[in-house]
Each structure stands twice: as C-alpha cells, then as structure tokens.
Amino acid sequence: MRRSQRTEALYALLFLAPFLIHLGVFFVFAFVRTLGFSFTDKTLIGQSYQVVGLANFVQLFQDPRFIAALTHSISFMLVVTTLQTFLALSMAAILNQRLKGITFFRTVYYIPSVLSSAAVTVIAIWFFQKTGFLNTFIGWVGSVAPVLLAFLAIFALAQALQVGWERMRGLPVALTDPALAAISLAVGLALTWTLVALGVVGPREARPPEFTWLTNSDRFLGIPIPLWSIIMLNTFTTIPTLMLIFLAGLQDIPKSIYEAAAIDGASPLQQFFSVTVPMLRPVTFLVITLSLIGTLQMFDQVALMGDAAPLDSVIVLAYYVFNNVFSGEGRVGLASAAAIVLALLTFAIVLLQRALGISEKAH
Amino acid sequence: MAAQALQPKRKLDERYLARQRWARAGWIYGAMLALAVFFIGPFYVAYLGSLKDNPLEWPFRYTFAQTQPKNWAAAWRLGQLGAGDPWLGGFVPGARVPFQISYFVQAGQEPQAPLVTVPTRRAGAGLGAIFDEVQAARYAQVSEVQEVGRRPAVVGGEPGQIVTYSFTVTYEGQGPKAARLPLDVEAPRGQLYYAATLDPNRLERRGRVASWDSITPGFLGYVFRNYVRVFNEARDPNTGASFFLRWTLNTFLVCLTVVLSTLLFASLAGYALARMYFPGKNYLFAFVVFTMTVPAQAIFISNYLVLRDLGLLGSLWGMVVWSAVGAGAVFIMKQFFESIPREIEEAALIDGASPITTFFRIILPMATPALGALTILTFQGMWNEFFKAAVVLSGQQGNYTLPLGLSFFRSAYGVAGDWGLMLASAFLSMIPIIILFVVFQRYFVEGVSTSALKG
Fold this sequence. Notes:
The structure holds two protein chains of two kinds.
Chain A: H1 3-37, H2 55-62, H3 64-95, H4 102-114, H5 117-127, H6 133-168, H7 178-198, E1 219-220, E2 223-224, H8 225-251, H9 255-263, H10 268-279, H11 281-296, H12 300-305, H13 311-314, H14 317-325, H15 332-355
Antiparallel strand pairs in A: 1-2
Helix pairs in contact in A: 1-15, 2-15, 3-8, 3-11, 3-14, 4-8, 6-7, 8-11, 11-15, 14-15
Chain B: H1 2-5, H2 14-51, H3 69-83, E1 96-106, E2 115-117, E3 140-142, E4 146-155, E5 158-171, E6 183-186, E7 191-196, E8 202-204, E9 209-212, H4 218-223, H5 225-233, H6 243-275, H7 281-291, H8 296-309, H9 316-322, H10 327-339, H11 343-350, H12 355-366, H13 368-383, H14 387-392, H15 402-414, H16 419-439, H17 441-454
Antiparallel strand pairs in B: 1-5, 1-7, 2-6, 3-5, 4-5, 6-9, 8-9
Helix pairs in contact in B: 2-16, 5-16, 6-9, 6-10, 6-13, 10-13, 11-12, 15-16
C-alpha cells in the first residue's frame, strides 16, 4: 500500500468513525449480546445469571402466548403483504395517467403514510369502536343497500342495452365503453332518484351497531377479529408508499411497448397482464420484500391498542419481546430468544429474496 | 350474443373516439376523487369527532352544535361578556352575562320557568380531575328567570307553543378569574328544550335538562373545546405544567438534535463510502445495507442496557444517542455523493487542501439538496418514532415525546372513554408534520419513489 493510499484510508476511517462506533455499539454489539442473552436466564433486575443452553427456546415454543405471537406475526405479514401489493398495484395502474392535477392527488394519497403511527392508531381505535365510524358506515351501506342495488341494476341494464344497440349498428364498442357508461350513469342516477321519489325503493332504517371490532373474541379465517382491525389499519397507512414506488416503476416502462401492443390489437387488460406485470417484476419484488420486512416489525399499533383489545388477540413477535423485558421481573433471556426468532425470520426473508436471484435494485 | 356474432361493419370514427377519451378522463377523475375520499375521509370524520362533545355518539352526525356559525358567533360574544376574551372566554369580576332559553310546551299545558343553577363541576376525567380550579359556582349569581315571549308552534306534529325565558348571570364583587362558567337548566316535566343563546353541550332526560360546560366559552373554548382541554387538563401533578406543551417541546428538541447529528455523521460516512479508498469498503457497504433490514425490536435489549449503564434512561439524550445516525441516512448520502462529478474535489485536493477542508468547504455546500431531503426524512422519522421512545423514556412522563404521550393519554383517558381529548391530542400532534408535508411535499413524494428504486 502506497503512502498516499494509507493516508486516504486513515482519513476514511476518521470520516467513518462516528458512524462505525454507533453501528458497532447499537448494532453489532447489540446483536451479539442479544444472541448471548438468549442462552442465559438473565433478568432485568437480577444481578447474576447462568447459561441455560437452549432452554429459553424450548420454553418459548411451550408458551401459548409466544405461539400466538408467532402465528399472528406470520399471518399478519402474509395477509397485509398480499392486500397491499394488489391494492397498491391496481391503484398505481389507475393513477398512471398523463392528466392534469394528478400530482395533487398523488400528494393527497400520501398523507396517511406521513402521519405518525401513534396518532393514526389513536384515530383508528376510535374508528373501530362499537359506535365508531366504521360501524356507522357499514350500517349506512346496509340501510341504503336497496337503493344501491337498484342503481347498479339500472346502470348495468342501461349499459347492456346501449352496447347491444351499438353493436347491432355494427360499431365495435367494448362492454366497458366509457362514453356509454357515462350515459348509463346518468340514466341510472335519474331512474333511481325517480324510484326513490315514487317510494318504490327506499333506505331501510339503520339499527344501532352490534358488532365489536376490538373486544371481539371471534376469529375470521383463523385470525382474531382485533388483529383484522390492525391489518386494515396497517394496509391503509402503507398502501400510499407502495403505490408511489409502483407508480415510479410504471412510469419507467417505455410508452412504445404499449403502443406496439396496442397495434397488435391487445386490449387494455391484456396489455396490463402481458406488458405491465412482467416489466414491473423487479419493482414488485422490491415492494413485496419491503412489505414483508416492514410488517414483521409491526409494534406501534399493538402497543397503542393497550387495553382497547385483549392482548392475546393482537400480540405479535415484536411486542412479545418488548412485553417480556418490561413486565414482571423482566425476562431478558426469554425475550432475547424471541428476538432471535424475529431476527431469523427477517434473515430468512432477505435470504429468500437473494436466492431468487433478484437484487433490491430495480435497474 | 347475436350482436357479437355480427362482424363490425364500421370503424369507430374520430368524433366517437374523442367522446370516448373525454368520458375516460371523466371516469378516471371520478376514481381519483373516490380514492381521495378513501384516504382523507377517515381523518375528516375523526376530526369532526374531535370537535364533538361525545365523539362516540350514535347515530353519527355531520353537523352539530360546534359546526354551526350561529354558535360560533354566540360563543365569541359570550366569551367577551364573561371575561373580555372572545377566544378562550372565562368569568371575571364584574361580568354580566344575559342568556335566553326556549322550550316547547304542548298545547293545554301551562309553561313554567325552568330552574337555573351554576353547578360545581370538575374538569374532565383522568389527569385534570386532581387539580383544584376556581369554581364559578362560588361567585356567580343567577337573576330571576323571566318569561320574555310566547309564540304558537308545531313541533314533531304536536301543536303547542314556544316559550322563551331570559336570565342574567353576574359576578358581583371581587374574586379570582374562573376559567369556565358551567350551567345547568332544568325544565319541568313536559317542557322540551327548543333553543338557547348557545347550544348546550349535553341534553339529558329527554331534553328537560340542558347543561353547558361553560356559557362564556369564547370561540376556541366552544368549537375547539377538546383541543383547549388537551392543554388545560393534562398537567403534571407535581409542577402543574401542561404535559402536551412539554411533549411538543421535547419532540422538537429530539428531532432537531438528531437531524443535526445525522446530517453531520451520515454525510461524513456517506462521503467516505462513496469516494475514498480503503480496504474492505464493499464489504462494509454490503453490511450497512444488511443492517437496514434488521428490526430495531430484535436488538433493543442490549441498547436498553447500554443506555441504562450510561445513565441515559428516561432522558431525551438517550433517544438522541440511540438515533444519532442511521444506516439509511448513510445510504442516501452515499448514493448522492456518487452522483456528483469527481473533478471538483480532485481540483481542490491537488491544490493541497486536506480531505477535511475539502469536505467542509467544497463537498458539503454542494450536497444541499441531499441534505435538505435527509433533514425532512429524519425529522419526520423522529417525530413519529414510537418504539425507541417507549424503550428509553417510559415512566418519565415529563420527558415523553408526542407519540409516547399519545399512548399515555390513551391509557389515562381510554378507561373513561374520553375520546374528545384523545382525538384532539392526536390531531394536534400531527400539525407540524402536516405543515412540513405541505411545504416540502415534493421531497416526500419523490424521495420515496426514487430512493426506493435506486436502492
């Protein structure tokens, strides 16, 4: 190594020093120490501790609460990732238009992702109360269901008649023709209004809500209802971020490919599945990885729930670790073992991603 | 089916296609509007809830006393009459507050004057209840209730009349200022509340008992009552200082300190990783990227113990030290430094300037856009940081940051179901981030999409 190179390396070390010290203490040391603790019976208050081997891990898998936390974490991760990816992609596809004002809407949609999880969770808990807004809204939809159904039926009928008529005249219109749909919309609204005014159909009376979201002990698809509430909340707040990533990916797809596909006679739906989806694969991979890792870390929502929902119905791994350290005598050993399980799950996802041969880079 | 069997005889003409394009744009705007309602609607209804006296009322109302301009004007005027303060109101010596209330009385029933009292009422549930406040009941005098008018009316299909009564609440002699002037008005059986100078906060016993938290609330004290309560009621039992103000200040301090340390350390490290030569650089960078995927929840136990040994638990410095510089920030700065041309710094180095001088004199000033983006991302991240606050600060209410404070409110007021105060505090805690977002929204939106894809 030449002298100047050595100087440069020394300067680099100097520049990196604060970051490396921080990384060393708060990551490397922390990780090694957590791994070490996981084989001991250390507590937060006790001074001395002994090595107990794998006893903590054995104990973990005998603890019904840990099993609940593990299954909740994994099902939460899978459900939220699936929902988020599909919803974010379809929203991005809708938003990927060269229309005036699109940036404004994009900014507006991003708001739920910017706000603090604490504030949003407090609002969400209100939302999920028995007489909160979610039940109010569901009750409202239920009460106007006859009117909505009447409208949808009229709309579909009007559209079918128009498309049939145009095709009879020999025009190759699609079933989803937007111009005809606009006329159908107007017809649907006018006729529904008339029917309501004549008293043929009308909203039913809304009943006081009975369903509880947060204090419910039922399960849906094996997942407790309170956890479903958190699933909805988390999906809602993270869709915007993922949608923006998709949108950036969509805008990188050259327009010429779509034009070529259109000339070959591909319908918009065919274009979506044979051009958009394959071209977006690297971005989709990135989104899925981000989402899997992010959902596995979910903590804030559960912690803020507090006594609003029974702990055993919402507990996840991250909260299990926290709760074991900061309740009772502070079972650091056991908590560390659970933390190692959480870390291993994360590594497994990262490794799986690497193994599938697609790096984080979209380009 | 028959239609489909027909071969298209004609092509869609230009006019038809134009119409289709317009209609398509219309549908897309409609869809975008619907999505906007989906993302903003929940916050709007929660905001309405935060203004209500009972956010959990059923059925849900979109218009209520606090949204009516008539009450805004009355609250403003009464606040001025009560304490000369049209914003927050109150009750001071010499105040004379005239008030009117009307009842619906069914035909055939003789109206009777209602019973007016100024009750002794403690502020809210939870934290505020332990403080002794000046009670207006000790100083207020209610004049005789007089009937001032009758007119026939039909209410709910029942014929009858509307009778209006008037009275005055006065503060005679000397005394301290009372923050509120609560009022209960109880009418005899069969008389239904119809209207008043200011709509009441609660109606009980089928509209016979109307009660006000304050009839001299001022505009903010009436419309944003729950917001005012966040500041007034949640106070430190020892010092009496407002928790919420303290938490806001704490959060600002932590955010600013962390932003400064992150800017300095991350740009130093990012520059070294992007530009300088040293052995094992690529491995180090790969490791840094790897650390970004490991959740803080998996490794916090040791960090908690380290901070405990340093005596930083329960202190804001603990938060700062733990968050001083993050791998993500180093990553962003490295990406940026790689994108600027090498020639400029090489020229400086040839001139004999040391790397340190070059960095601070030449490189850092060029990095202003990246530093700006990093400032905003770090500030937002720290403002919303809940986990680290929960680990470091728990138990020291005076040192909480806002997210942890919201969690504290949730457990302190959740039992009593005081949702007005909880929702109001959630909205208050969002204000700085919303301002930041509105001003710098370009950084947020572009930051997410570009940094994610480049990463």
